[in-house]
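REVIEWER CHECKLIST
Item 1: Sequence provided? yes
Item 2: Single chain? yes
Item 3: Sequence as submitted:
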Amino acid sequence: MRRLGVLVGLVALLCGVHHTQARPGAQGYPWTPWRPEAARAAPVVQGYATWYGPGFEGNWTYCGDIFHQWGATAASNTLPCWSVVTVTNLSTGASITVTITDRGGFGGSTILDLSRGAFAAIADPSEGVIAVEVW
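Item 4: Structure as written out by the authors:
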């Protein structure tokens, strides 16, 4: 009976180790490997978001994914790859959950570059820039 308890403990320990391993295929790459505990780790931040899409469709992102402008993704210079964050449009209250899959080339108070589809879900793309809260 004691051996069974040790075996169950060992299996539980091994299962726990599995959840902190890097995302399959991510080992050896220069970006941050995805970890479940890193998801939703972003603090609440307010700033501005823009959008991008045409001209980048089908290209590789910094995080090693193929960019699709109508997907729910975003580019950030501060959040690690594969972070999952919720972006809320401060003027309308509309929200969308996106995955960070790219790095942006923006500055100032612009904190995210949303894919065209993510931006369109919370604002009219003709606005170009919106005030957002990211958490």
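Item 5: Key structural point noted by reviewer: Residues 12-32 have pLDDT under 50 and may be disordered.
Item 6: Recommendation: ____
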